[in-house]
């Protein structure tokens, strides 16, 4: 007994052809790969830079010190 395939053969060939003919980088080929490879790291970097800048400003002006 053979197991049924996950996808129809024609659809699989169509997807393989699509991914093989893309000129983008490998990590950006999927539909939502731009979100995970670009947007999330940029958001984390931006947030961390903001928090570091705020901390440096607070330290240089003496704001938020505990008594």
From TrEMBL:
It is found in: Mitochondrion inner membrane. The keyword Transmembrane helix applies. InterPro entries: COX7a. Keywords: Membrane, Mitochondrion, Mitochondrion inner membrane, Transmembrane, Transmembrane helix. Its main location: mitochondrion. The chain crosses the membrane at residues 34-57. GO terms for cellular component: mitochondrial inner membrane. It holds the Pfam family COX7a. This is COX VIIa-like protein.
């Amino acid at each position: 007994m053979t197991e049924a395939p996950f996808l129809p053969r024609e659809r699989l060939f169509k997807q393989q052809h699509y991914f093989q003919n893309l000129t983008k980088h490998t990590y950006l080929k999927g539909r939502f790969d731009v979100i995970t490879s670009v947007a999330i790291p940029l958001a984390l970097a931006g947030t961390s830079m903001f928090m570091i800048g705020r901390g440096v400003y607070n330290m240089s002006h003496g704001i938020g010190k505990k008594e």
